[in-house]
């Protein structure tokens, strides 16, 4: 982490982002923000993407501005599938500027910020939609977003079991060892052969893949909650479209979800409306949370980190 001068903003690397995070506090900040209309009051347009051709790549810009926080935050992200060996698929930076002075305040590691936001949103939604007891969890995918889902769930519930499947058996085995360490000795962790094997007997099913075809095509009878954190577009999703229509569909923001993930989300309930008047029977219903990522939640997460990295920062 490097201190800022008059012209150079504070630079917060991934280690500083992780070290500054207080996940339970961030969950409550997001809960209040959605419930009290702060998200609705912010200006958060759909992301802008630009395709590169040589080599094939995607460049994204995800802005949000909040007068309440006094911040304008834009995440810049790149996706280069045919990248040099050793490079991650995605690079991201989050640029934070003051709405009061226009001054650049900070540049944060965007991937670390995304991880933290994903964990916090998973915790928030899981807390709303699951019974207050140890949970049996099934996961499709074993990458970074799958880990953040487990991290988020562990923040609000003990886990009784975690069953994971992944295209690469070695990745699933490594994930299982990591999850066992995080969840503790009372949690049974297993590796399954495929997506169909993580459905039955689960309280929560999580997806975190780049699949263009639905991986979850049926749900068990009785209440279950689904967290979809991976691929989303009008022509690709991890959960079959009929399941989105048949069950209570939740999103961060409905307009954003329709713009980015298609008309199947037109009847979704966004988190602001849900938290303003949560149904008493929510944990006894089957619910599907279809996340598109929310730049406003990135903004709240950035403000959370900056308050801890530099307490005198002019946010909030």
TrEMBL record:
Pfam families: OCD_Mu_crystall. SUPFAM superfamilies: NAD(P)-binding Rossmann-fold domains (SSF51735). GO terms for cellular component: cytoplasm. PANTHER family: KETIMINE REDUCTASE MU-CRYSTALLIN (PTHR13812:SF19). This is Ornithine cyclodeaminase family protein. It comes from Micromonospora robiginosa.
């Amino acid at each position: 982490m490097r201190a800022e001068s008059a012209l150079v903003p504070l630079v917060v690397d991934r280690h500083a982002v992780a070290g500054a995070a207080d996940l339970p506090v961030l969950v409550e900040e997001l809960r209040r923000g959605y419930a009290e209309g702060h998200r609705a009051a912010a200006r958060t347009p759909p992301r802008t993407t630009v395709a590169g051709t040589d080599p094939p790549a995607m460049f994204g810009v995800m802005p949000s501005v909040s007068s309440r926080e006094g911040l304008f935050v834009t995440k810049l992200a790149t996706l280069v599938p045919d990248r040099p060996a050793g490079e991650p698929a995605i690079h991201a930076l989050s640029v934070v500027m003051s709405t009061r002075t226009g001054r650049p305040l900070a540049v944060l590691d965007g991937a670390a910020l995304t991880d933290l936001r994903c964990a916090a949103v998973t915790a928030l939604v899981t807390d709303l939609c699951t019974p207050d007891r140890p949970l049996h969890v099934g996961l499709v995918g074993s990458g970074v977003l799958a880990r953040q889902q487990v991290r988020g769930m562990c923040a609000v519930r003990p886990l009784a079991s975690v069953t994971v499947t992944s295209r690469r058996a070695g990745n699933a085995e490594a994930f299982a060892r990591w999850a066992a360490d995080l969840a503790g000795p009372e949690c049974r962790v297993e590796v399954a052969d495929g997506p169909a094997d993580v459905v039955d007997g689960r309280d929560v099913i999580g997806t975190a893949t780049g699949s263009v075809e639905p991986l979850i095509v049926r749900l068990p009878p009785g209440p279950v909650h689904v967290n979809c954190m991976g691929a989303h577009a009008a022509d690709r999703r991890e959960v079959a479209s009929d399941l989105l229509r048949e069950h209570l569909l939740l999103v961060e923001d409905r307009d954003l979800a329709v713009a980015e993930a298609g008309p199947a989300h037109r009847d979704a309930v966004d988190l602001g409306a849900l938290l303003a008047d949560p149904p008493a029977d929510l944990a006894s219903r089957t619910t599907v949370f279809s996340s598109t990522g929310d730049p406003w939640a990135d903004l709240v997460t950035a403000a959370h980190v900056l308050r801890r990295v530099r307490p005198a920062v002019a946010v909030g």
